[in-house]
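Quick one - inputs below.
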Amino acid sequence: MLRGFPFAAPNVPEGVEVLPRKVRRGAAYDSSWAREQPARYARFFIVEGPMRAAVSTLASPTRKGLDRLAGLRGPLIFAANHHSHLDAPLMLTSIPQPFRHRMVVAAAADYFFGNQVTAALSALAMGAFPIERSRVSRGSAEQAAELLEEDWSLLIFPEGGRSPDGWGQGHRGGAAFLSLRTGVPVVPVHLAGTDRIYPRGATRLRPGSTTVTFGHPLQPAEGDDARRLAVKIEAAVATLADESATDWWGARRRAAAGTTPSLTGPGTTGWRRTWALGDRSGRTRPARRTWPEL
Amino acid sequence: MSPPAPRRPGHEVVQGRAPRPGFVLEVDRSTPSTLFHHGEGFRLERLPVGSRIVYPSEAVPVLRHPEEAIRQALLQPVGQDPLPAQLFPGMKLTIAFDDVSLPLPKMRRPDIRQRVIEAVLDLAAEAGVDDVHLIAALALHRRMTEAELRHAVGDRVYDAFAPHGLLYNHDAEDPDNLTLVGHTELGEEVEINKRAAESDLLVYVNINLVSMDGGHKSTATGLSSYRSLRHHHNVKTMQHSRSFMDQHRSELHSSNWRMGKVLRDAGLKVFQIETTLNNDTFPKPFDFLQKREWEWSARDRMAFVAATSGLDRMSNRMKRNLFQSIEAPHDMTGVVAGEIEAVHAITTAKVFEQQLVPVSGQADVVTMGLPYISPYNVHSIMNPILVACLGLGYFFNMYRGKPLVREGGVVILSHPTPWEFHPVHHPSYIDFFEQVLADTTDPVEIEKRYEASFAEDEWYRHLYRTSYAYHGVHPFYMWYWCAHALQHVGAVIIVGGDPRAVRRLGFRPASTLPDALEMAEDTVGRDPSITHTHAPPLYMADVS
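Output:
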């Protein structure tokens, strides 16, 4: 009979102190294996194969501002607005070489690393590593800084989570802190259109078009602290959003005049915030005919 | 928290070893065969022992942070107030920029003009300037297509201005949009684009690929009309420019400077921005073209063999498409802004730093391998007139002091010289070739008898204004560009060219280089001294 020990877990003798189980989930997940060479090869094929095909089919991306990254070397921090689970694959297939295949993604420890399966898949397919978004974690920040110092570029969504209502959220200081800590420039990126394809809470995908706009890398200036730099990054993303929606010259003029439309929307609540989204909400009339057939 | 030592955008570009200067190699028995450009192809030729080969210098170091350098140039100009101090709300700002003829080959994105124009517009936005026009300063060249404009100024600028009619090509035949500003002391009419003339500030964005570019020539030529251009684009000016690449001995330069002074005295305020490039001309896999032959690696040799055998199997059209798609990895070596003459003096020195190669003495015979591109056949066909202009106009004039070839010597060009013309870009070239050159090749005669009829032809004018055609008079200017060389040399031989086309040009065709050298002996005698110009990459011979 194949029952009991050693075919089943042993009983613990009474009176013996049980060692705490090593937690391998959440912020404690060790994703370093995903940065070893075999995993990198696998990720190369995943990103360039099924991920790129899926992104092209679902999101038909238009990529703008890549010339602003021409000639750059070394690691960069890409900081983008965040509306959808589609954002990370869209970014991973849009970021140019030489950064694309030496890239890690800061992913929510509580969401992506909640169990072994999603953690392993996230680490393998996206190069994700866990970062705590609910509290300031020295461990997460240290790990991110070490990776930057090892020449890994970082994709981070400074809003800390997907937009709940179509408007952006205020930027947290993670990207700014890392830039100040390591001296690595931050590339602001604006993603438009993913909220219409797969917004938070959606149950099905609605293929559409997206625009990825890369900005000029931002360098921490003398006297900048994390809060001030985060504000600059947020303003740069807002300007890119304006540029993406209108044109570059108009966006530059509004940026200079301090009248760039806010990413976070009006300070109202309820239906007025949704109303202010206008066409951007992506909520269209249902195709189903509501008028009775005569 | 204070930031650590900055890792600037782009970080530090490794410069490697210092670039080697250009030099003159004397051919001996151990010298490998020498690369000759040959249109959309190449040839390896054995030059006689004792010949000289002039090699250009290697690419000089580039600016590590071009965006920052541009901003500094705008904030700390020479001889003028910083650009932000010259910008104010309600002003008329015009930004003119060089057209598709620069640089060669076109540079990979982002184009240098885009970088500069975006920096200027950023400052204009900060100053609250609303009234901005962008003009491609193309004089009598063909209009730039949307794709070419997008490449030059970038999609962001194009999408922001072109749909509103604020980004456009200069029209040198639009009487409503030209202004006669005045006359020089020699009676030369100075007529330029009306919008530029009436602006509170004209910002001119230059690419100074060779020493002739920039200075007062930018506005006085780029934004002018035929009425104005004819005063310096003529045979007399060209024959008195020794050479037009050397501003101290160039009548072309002097005339433009006189016109520039008229513009300045009339109150036109120009903020000149000049940029210089290194001579990193060919991307992989064609980078062997800018190496010295004895330094070709196994990979380079394989690339050469693959390229030549592949090109042999292609049609002319396919070859042109392939070569015209090349985007040079040029990078910016300098950017200077401010007062025109002060800026141009600095830029010219920077161009010379890259391009000057000292050469001792002239030669009886000079050989040149002509590449697939000249300033006037970008995305087009290099017709026989442009072959002549590239060899005898540009390459011949790339000297300071004395021409590389002695007076009465022979120039041997290597180019297929097909009897082919681009019917959209070069309509008047076809008639010039068929009618004018069939009659005479003497530039003076041609100017006297034919120029006016082509320049004032309504059909050519219509094509220039509404299609993508060079102006009716443009082939004449190409021929005048050759006037100094035609006056100076005893014979011109083209190796590997279409014999009919070569003879129509008034030159002699040869099948091979040894044949051409033997034919040259008829003019310069036996055992002539031979010098080969190993270009591109471009260089300028400083002949003592």
